[in-house]
Design brief:
The protein is rod-shaped and about 145 Å long. By secondary structure, it is of the alpha+beta class. Among the domains are: about 20-120, Membrane-bound Lytic Murein Transglycosylase D, Chain A, CATH 3.10.350.10; about 175-220, Roll (Membrane-bound Lytic Murein Transglycosylase D, Chain A), CATH 3.10.350. The chain is built from 7 helices and 7 strands; from the N terminus they run E-E-H-H-E-H-H-E-H-E-E-H-H-E. The longest helix is centred in the N-terminal third of the chain and has 8 residues, at about 35-45. Helix content is about 20%, strand content about 15%. The chain has helices at about 35-45, 45-55, 85-90, 95-100, 155, 185-190, 195-200; strands at about 20, 25-30, 65-75, 115-120, 165, 175, 215-220.
Length: about 220
């Protein structure tokens, strides 16, 4: 004799309001008058499981036609299975499975059909975030300051000394061009240096009296 189910009540779900999602979790469409406690009692799962699966925040208000994910086990019917054998597999009353899935006499099920198993809470896998390739920052050009030219002492002080003096290439003293009537004593007195200092830096001068106009001599003056 075929076992009859009790008539459908307010705690049953119609087939168009409970749609299978994956092997773990069903998508439930909220009806008028539903609340989290009535839905949790209908499917035999804790209220907190529904809250966590849908990331709901206080005061946990839901509204008609809202889609909720129910973290319940989904069973795929295989060949030879019946509601009774499926109920024994999960230790759940087969009539409860029929009521939740809105199955009516003669309770026909077919291979590949998805059935929600009430009271069997499962862990819904979270989708892994898509990793975007990291863009390397474009290096900014390095601006190097232009080095300032190094001025030699004679370039700076050239306008401060006698125009007849020219810088000596080795930065030691200045080059003086002998004029008509010049003597070493007169040149030494003019620049307030001893005659011996001029002779010392000019080894080609053998006698203080032997200089001539146009001759280049080194005058060791301080700049």
């Amino acid at each position: 004799m075929r076992q009859q189910l009790p008539p459908d009540d307010n705690h049953s779900a119609s087939i168009d309001q409970l749609r299978p999602g994956t092997e773990c979790g069903w998508i439930y469409t909220v009806r008028a008058g539903d609340n989290l406690f009535s839905i949790a009692r209908r499917f035999g799962i804790p209220v907190v499981a529904i809250i966590n699966a849908n990331r709901l925040w206080p005061p946990y208000i839901i509204y008609p036609n809202q889609k909720l994910v129910l973290p319940i086990q989904v069973h795929t019917v295989t060949r030879g299975q019946t509601l009774y054998s499926i109920g024994n597999l999960y230790d759940v009353d087969w009539q409860r499975i029929a009521r939740v899935n809105n199955l009516r006499p003669p309770y026909t099920i077919y291979v590949g059909q998805k059935l929600a198993i009430p009271g069997e809470v499962c862990q819904i896998p979270r989708p892994r975030p898509t990793l975007r390739p990291t863009r390397r920052p474009t290096p900014r050009p390095t601006f190097r300051p232009t080095p300032r030219p190094t001025w030699r002492p004679y370039e700076y002080a050239e306008s401060l000394v006698d125009p007849l003096l020219r810088p000596y290439p080795r930065d030691c003293g200045w080059i003086y061009t002998v004029e008509q009537g010049d003597t070493l004593n007169a040149i030494a007195d003019k620049y307030s240096i001893p005659v011996d200092d001029i002779i010392e830096v000019n080894p080609d001068i053998t006698s203080p009296d032997l200089i001539y106009p146009g001759q280049k001599i080194i005058v060791p003056v301080q700049v």
